[in-house]
Design a protein that fits this description.
Shape: elongated
Number of domains: 3
Helix content: 10-25%
CATH superfamily of the largest domain: Pleckstrin-homology domain (PH domain)/Phosphotyrosine-binding domain (PTB)
Number of helices: 6
Largest sheet: 9 strands, antiparallel
Number of strands: 21
Mean pLDDT: 84
CATH architecture of the largest domain: Roll
CATH class of the largest domain: Mainly Beta
Strand order of the largest sheet: 1-5-4-3-2-8-7-6-19
Length: 363
């Protein structure tokens, strides 16, 4: 059967430096939601006037003085972000955006300062859009990331996200992940494929088309099966499903391939930000004097609870940079699992990668 080309989503999961013409090389579905002018990368390129772009996946800064200097910081790497007052080159106070981020086991600190010299901007929250867009990104991970055993089903019905439409409900779908199989239901939408067990709705998977690398039909010990392979950023799982009769299986296969192709042409990352409405909110808040620059602070603890960050880091480190190939590691026999597997990189344990969801420790 036909395979689907894999185009890994890295923009929200990586920090990259000096990517040629990065501001014009956005991926499909990525949009610039706000542009902030006259901004300096104080820690890395002091003295260079640049622009700060907030997209639905990342923050981009690029220099206007030296075209090769730029930064791309994915929202998925944010740890802490706030605004600070700093001293400008002219000697007066100005505001700056501080971002603490992590990448490849390294902590990065970024400071983007307003160097416009415009006194009217001194007391304006010029970085507010960054915080609002980042908040939206945090709340829309189901658009972009695979989720296992999530609270996504209520009384047998999928909880629909904004701009999501249910296109098909398919009953009688066997999940072949266990020896006996589990009978459940497919929900096919314009954004993702969801399967949940009929006997236990919490046993489910939400798989965005974004994280599907391959769909095919192949023979299994249960007969013809729908086999879906997730992308590396989606865990690299191989999922098998049986649907009877075979004619119905073929129909579902063609439908999923079609939806995946349509989505790939115009991905929806879930972040919807209206700059006009944001300006109206700003004006209203300014009138009531409720807005203070120092109040904008976000510490991202939610993502730590939602996903296994060690697994994400491991997968990100193993992803090849465009134009290169990832190093191949030899297979070794794993006593715990009972089969051969790729040798784990130094600094990681099997348990780090086995737990898709993090352990919840009691207070």
């Amino acid at each position: 059967m036909d395979s689907l080309s894999e185009n890994l989503l890295w923009e929200d999961k990586e920090i990259r430096f000096d990517t040629p013409n990065v501001q014009n090389h956005l991926r499909r579905g990525e949009k610039v939601l706000d542009t902030i002018y006259h901004i300096e990368d104080t820690k890395g390129n002091a003295g260079d006037t640049g622009r700060l772009l907030a997209t639905n996946l990342r923050v981009i800064w690029y220099s206007l003085s030296h075209k090769k200097y730029n930064l791309s910081i994915g929202y998925g790497r944010f740890v802490n972000t706030n605004t600070r007052s700093v001293v400008s080159k002219a000697g007066g106070p100005t505001q700056a955006l501080y971002i603490l981020a992590t990448g490849s086991n390294t902590r990065f600190e970024f400071l983007f300062a307003d160097i416009s010299g415009d006194t009217a901007r001194k007391d304006q929250p010029i970085f507010q859009s960054i915080f609002e867009i980042y908040h939206l990104y945090q709340r829309t991970y189901l658009y972009r990331d695979l989720k296992l055993r999530g609270a996504i089903i209520l009384s047998g019905q999928l909880i629909i996200m904004p701009e999501e439409m249910v296109c098909n409900n398919v009953n009688g779908v066997w999940n072949l992940s266990s020896d006996q199989g589990n009978l459940g239901t497919f929900v096919v939408t314009n954004i993702r494929l969801v399967w949940f067990a009929d006997a236990n709705e919490t046993f489910n998977i939400s798989l965005p088309y974004l994280q599907i690398s391959n769909i095919r039909i192949r023979e299994s010990k249960y007969g013809p099966a729908l086999v879906i392979q997730t992308a590396e950023t989606g865990g690299g799982y191989v999922l098998g499903f049986r649907i009877d009769p075979v004619e119905r299986l073929n129909d579902i296969y063609r439908e999923l391939v079609s939806f995946h192709a349509i989505y790939s042409e115009n991905p929806n990352f879930g972040v919807c930000y209206d700059s006009t409405e944001a300006q109206k909110r700003l004006a209203k808040m300014k009138d009531t004097e409720e807005l203070k620059t120092e109040e904008f602070q976000e510490i991202d603890n939610r993502q730590e609870r939602e996903v296994n960050t060690k697994l994400n880091t491991y997968l990100a480190e193993g992803t090849a940079v465009a134009g290169t190939e990832a190093a191949v590691r030899e297979p070794v026999y794993c006593k715990e699992l009972g089969f051969a597997m790729e040798r784990i990189r130094d600094g990681y344990k099997l348990q780090d990668l086995w737990d898709v969801l993090p352990r919840v420790e009691d207070d």
